[in-house]
Specification:
Blueprint (H helix, E strand, L loop, with lengths): L1 H13 L2 H8 L1 H5 L6 H32 L48
Length: 116
Amino acid sequence: MASIMNFCARRYLSLSAAARNAVKGPSAVSGSHEAGGYKLWKRLTFFVAFPACGLCMLNAYLGHQEDHHKPRQEFVKYDYLRVRTKRFPWGDGNKSLFHNPHVNALPDGYETDAHH
């Protein structure tokens, strides 16, 4: 029994990749487990992925609307926040790359008043 298994294993390993795929059958070459697998992914795309993206967009929009009407936090100068040990390589060196003067405070406070 062991000699038969050794013979089959040696024969299988000596075959080329194309011959191994022919031995396995046509389903191994196609890469999918069933012939209509694309239909499942098409349905998942239209009925799961697109609605999920729409819900995420709605959530982001409603969250933005909610945050837009909140008053901004009062500035408190803490020693451990907004520490500048090295200048930024752009602009005046004090503002981050995506600096927003209405929301982001500098080490000395906000640049603009609270009303915008």
